[in-house]
Please model this.
Amino acid sequence: MVVAGGGTAGHIEPALAVADAVSRIDPTARITALGTSRGLEVTLVPERGYDLRLIPPVPLPRKAGLDLARVPGRLVGSVAATRKILDEVDADVVIGFGGYVAVPAYLAAQMHLRRRRRIPIVIHEANASAGIANKVGARFADRVLAAVDGSGLDATVVGIPVRGVLAELDRAELRAKARHYFSLDDDAPTLLVFGGSQGAQRLNDAVSGAAEALGKNGIGVLHAYGPKNSIDPAVVEGAPPYRAVGYLKRMDLAYSAADLVMCRSGAMTVAEVSATGLPAIYVPLPHGNGEQRLNALPVVEAGGGLLVDDATVDADWVAREVPTLLKDPARLQQMSTAAAGTGHRDAASAVATAAIELAEDFRSGRRGAGRSRRDR
Model:
């Protein structure tokens, strides 16, 4: 099996969650991840123990110009490189998650003529509004799955694949261990803040700027500000700790340590937070086509979170609203129950099962044709 979901964590994490599910269902499966040298996959995929094969990146420029004119040539080269990899690993199915790695994978699988038949394709769309890559791939995919209704694709809704350690997370059981791991106060209401793998300057400024007010209200903070950023929160003597880190490798413990999350609302973030049953303040990134707002809406409408405009969030807002919410355990519990009710903890298994079924059918067809690649 080949999973194609490189670039950002929002594409890579669902791909790896499905890879884990495939391995649980069929330990004999061989899994390869496609990526480029530009994406986070160069770190995340090897850390999870999977084979990573790199292909030439084909970013799609947003404006007309020389770079746009070069796209067709770059795409041809990337598709050729991908077809070679599919042959080398003896691929039986391609599972795509969108992004610039997915298009070459879809086209290579569709045109893989050395086997005299195409390789089947499974597509998963995580966003509330489908991206270009999956819109292209969906035209000839065998199975199209999506996180929510209304993505723009004719798809079966299964939710977003979340890695097993989060889908099965018992926050209450891990709470003490998590607080100790991050050197947080054992009992203080605690806010978890993060803005994706690279951080979010708006959240960084707003929360660190409110550090004194949070400390005086007895609130602890675990703040992942991004590896390329920095913050300088005010230290309040005797207050619960404000722990600032560049990046969180143990998200299971970060979620377990928290009583409330303040974050962006990328599809993967919303899926993980809701699957763990955490109340959240979602601050959608105010760019693109508004997909981050759409991602959070189902959870917010169910009562599992708040949706706040980026322009509204500043230090004064955090100092005023966050303590009020964290000092209301009954409301937090209601939000937690609602958030958990919107999560799809079995999404990874659903995508994995669809891929395994297609792969088995493909291999049966190849045996029926008389010769496998190993016989040639």
Observations:
- The chain has a mean pLDDT of 89.
- The domain at 2-162+346-375 is CATH 3.40.50.2000 (Rossmann fold).
